[in-house]
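ok so i was messing around last nite and threw this chain in just to see what happens. nothing serious, just curious
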Amino acid sequence: MTVVKCFDCGSEQDFEVAVGYCEQCGRKLPVPHLRGKTTARRAFLADKKTSEVGTSNVAVTAGVFVAGVAALITVAVLVVRSQF
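result:
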């Protein structure tokens, strides 16, 4: 339960139950802070898996680059062959 206070009427409400809008005045409620909850990004960085992900990203990028070069060479060969 995340309780937030409406800026306009001052009533305190549960953000999830009210679906982001004040039940008293209908205005949009402020977005609650996480207060102690770890975000997915911080949890990911805390697990120290960035080196594994970085290595796989480099491998995928290199593979896509090689595939792109092969495609360009193939298109160039087809264009040259169609000229003669």
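not much to say yet. Helices lie at 40-46, 50-83.
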